[in-house]
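RECORD TYPE: inverse folding
INPUT: structure tokens
STRUCTURE:
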């Protein structure tokens, strides 16, 4: 028989202790150590394992890209590998940022008693959406369409990793900033007047 999450407790049963609360017991009595998620533990641990795999994979592939192992395995020509490696740093750095955010979000909602199965897709896709968002953001920076950083800085691998990590970690904010940029420079799509 598969485990199903227990019905949600009534909202008045749970109180949000906030981030780093003064009450480290999360509103529980001393000695109340058992999980609130009897039926959902398996799902929570699967999400945590998935995020741990991504957390380990991203820096591993960053290292392999830096070392040149990826170049040999994929047969990328040395003249093309510099661009490939930088793109890999950006994608993987943003994925690492998104994974860090998802992991932080997961342990906070579990600790606060707010985990729910309906947000599973959000938690699974966030690292990948963060990677794509960070990649697009750094591409706009590198093309100088968004001129907030010196172009020489953006060519350095460490800067690429740092910028993409931040863009991935704050991908919701990055998307909002990109939307403002698009509205300002590309323009809003105007509705055609309705014919009567």
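DESIGNED SEQUENCE:
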């Amino acid at each position: 028989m598969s485990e199903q999450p227990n019905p949600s407790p009534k909202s008045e049963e749970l109180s949000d202790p906030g981030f780093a609360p003064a009450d480290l017991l999360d509103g529980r009595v001393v000695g109340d150590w058992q999980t609130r998620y009897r039926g959902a533990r398996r799902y929570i641990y699967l999400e945590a394992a998935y995020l741990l795999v991504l957390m380990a994979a991203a820096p591993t592939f960053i290292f392999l890209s830096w070392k040149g192992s990826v170049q040999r395995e994929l047969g990328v020509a040395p003249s093309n590998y510099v661009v490939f490696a930088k793109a890999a740093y950006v994608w993987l750095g943003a994925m690492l940022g998104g994974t860090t955010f998802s992991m932080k979000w997961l342990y906070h909602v579990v600790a606060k008693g707010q985990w729910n199965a309906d947000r599973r897709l959000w938690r699974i896709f966030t690292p990948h959406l963060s990677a794509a968002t960070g990649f697009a953001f750094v591409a706009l920076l590198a093309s100088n369409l968004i001129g907030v950083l010196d172009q020489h800085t953006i060519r350095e691998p460490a800067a690429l990793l740092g910028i993409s990590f931040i863009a991935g970690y704050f991908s919701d904010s990055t998307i909002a900033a990109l939307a403002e940029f698009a509205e300002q420079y590309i323009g809003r799509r105007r509705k055609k007047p309705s014919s009567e």
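NOTES: DSSP finds seven helices and no strands in the chain.
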